[in-house]
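Sorry to interrupt, but I need a hand with the structure work. Could you write out one complete protein record for me, on any chain you like? Could you add the entry underneath, on a fresh line?
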Amino acid sequence: MNIYQIIHNLGTYFITTNADLLLQPKNGGERISIIDKDTKLQKHNIYHIHGSINDRQNMVFTLEQYIERYKNSNPLVKFLKKVFFPRNDLTILFLGYGMSEMEILQFFFEKIGKSQSIQKRYIFKEYFHGDEDLIDADEAFFKSMGINVIEYYIDTKGYEGITDELAIIEGLKREIITERCQRLSVKPTPENIQEILKYIKSNISVEEYFFKTILSEPDYQYTLDWFIPLYENGYFNPENNPKIKKETRLGEEMETIQRWIVIHYLIRVSYLNKQSPDKHISSLLAKIIYQIINYPSISERTLNFSTDRGVLEIIGNLSVEEINVTILKMFLTSFINNYSKSGLIFDIERYLIRNFLNCEKIGQMLLQFILSIEKDNIDIFKFRMYEDEVKKQALILIEKLLEINPIKVFCILSAKLYIIIKDYLNRDHEFSPDFYSYDDLLKFIKIQLLFSFKYITPGIGGRIIDKLLKKKEKTLRGIAIELIDNNYSIYKSIFWELKENPIVFSIPQTQNIFAHHHVEFSEKEIAIANAWIDSLPNDHKEENYE
């Protein structure tokens, strides 16, 4: 096993004098190279107390720099005092200290002072067989600093022997953890909760084992019983949500995303609670996810794809009463702006549309949202699949919402149609998915618009047609004429009272009215139609109408 992986498995806090980046942060940890008065010891962080190659100005090379770094007034000294002389039972393990670091180590302990501590401190030291006198001398030297020597021999496996020794210690630790974890598989009671939580907090391996245990437990009540204790002890605090880590490696910026294990537990709780709803649990779940969405603010929220996808799944299991539509829309907008657009569109159907189809307010928001998603940065080969999924979801929502509020559906569709037309006219018509899908998308929205109009009462329908006829875009005015054609007996008076010649701005739709309804025309209407035709320029008649 890689020595750095073993170190991670053994440790919770990492303090190094190395400037290299070989030890990588895990489990949500960060790399800290500047220690100031506000620096706190936090789990899984890597503290470069002598600087790192990412911060060369803060690196320590010379004796003068060491002396300056360990002045009593330097925040580093105060930070290390809290590490080495706390009122707790931390176990300290020194690795990689050779002869050149001995004076530094001695100087360091002299500067931070001596104190009675319950800490256990160990240092790995390399020896050859037969170095008993040197071992005795080192043991005496380190004992003065409260450090116990663990020797390993380099005349057999070289310096790689330290990896084997660490692996043995890791194995022993794993056995202890396994024994401790067996105590976790019990129902939480006021008497054992704090003891179990102490075990959980002691090591990331214990924490992972604990959550895997309650996630795999067939007894649903056992899983739910832990929800309140974990909530009350801050396990779902949004500040624990791991952030995206950005580091420069070999001159390239890399991003890593850590998994937040509690999200998987919350997902399971949400499914169990959906099966047998409990108002208190529902309320807390909603509170937790809205805190995650808004932390530290909706505009500067912590981004973690794994967490956010879990949040979306949890929202899908909440009751309608617990859904804040405004926050949900902001969350979806944040999601679409920072992650995969094509991926989210499938998750919306899976987690939201299926669960909230009967809710008018959520349904309207989802229809507006999925129709508003821009297609920028979507791979052209994935575009058709994405477009088809948008249409599929829109159809599901439209069909249901037309039963509830057809006017709102028509308004949403007409607004989208207007945006499509405006956007297309403003684009450069170069090779792009938009260019080839424009007519297809326009036809889809138009068909749904015409279909939804059938659900609207004549009084409101007439006002809609009048409004469309006043638009400057010919496409929108053409749709108004087509609406009249489809509902001629109701809206024919609007057509014949037009001040502007409809043939000029809507040739095919006007032709359809003439073809479909000419037998119904009165003599007055025939005269109006002939006047419209006669008023056209000859070239316009020949090219566009005759």
In short: The first helix runs from residue 3 to 10. The first strand starts at residue 14 and ends at 16. The CA atoms of residues 24 and 46 lie 8 Å apart.
